[in-house]
Amino acid sequence: MARRKTTRLLANADCRLGLSQRRYGLWVGVALAFASISAYAYMRQQPEPLASDLAKLSIQLNQENTDLKQAVERAELDARHEAATRTALEKQIRDLSQQVKRLQDEVAFMRSQKN
C-alpha cells in the first residue's frame, strides 16, 4: 500500500510539473507574440524617416555616380590625348633621328673630300 501511495504522489508531481511547463511555454509564446506585434507597430509608425533617408541616400549615390562617370570620361580623354601626343613625339623623334643620320653622313662625306 505504501508503494501505491508513493507512485500516486510521483504521478501527481509529474502531472503538476508537466502542467507548469505547458503554462511556461504558453507565457513564452504570449510574450513573443506581444514582442513581435509591438515591433511591427513600431515599424509601421516609422516609415517616413526611413523613406526620407533612402531618398537622400539615392540622391547622394546618383550624384556620386554622375561624378564618377565624368571622371571616367576625363580619364579616357586624357588617355587618348596622351596616346596621340606620344605618337606625334615618336614620329618627330624618328624624323629627327633620320635627319641627324643624314647630317652625319654629309659631315663624313665632307671630311673625306677634304682629306
* Quaternary assembly: single chain
Rounded mean pLDDT is 82
Ranges with pLDDT <50 over ≥5 residues?
none
The N- to C-terminal Cα distance equals 148 Å
Structural class: mainly alpha
**Rg from alpha-carbon coordinates:** 46 Å
Per DSSP, the total helix count is 2
Strand fraction band?
under 5%
Helix-strand sequence: HH
Which geometry do the CA atoms define?
Answer: rod-shaped
Number of strands: 0
Q: Describe the largest sheet.
A: none
Measured as a percent range, the helix fraction is over 70%
What does this structure look like?
The longest helix has 68 residues, at 47-114. The relative contact order is 0.03. This protein is mainly α. The protein has helices spanning 2-45, 47-114. Helix content is 97%, strand content 0%.
Q: How is this fold's topology laid out?
A:
Elements lengths: L1 H44 L1 H68 L1
Descriptive labels:
115 residues; 0% strand; 2 helices; rod-shaped
Short description:
This protein is an all-alpha fold and 115 residues long. It has helices spanning 2-45, 47-114.
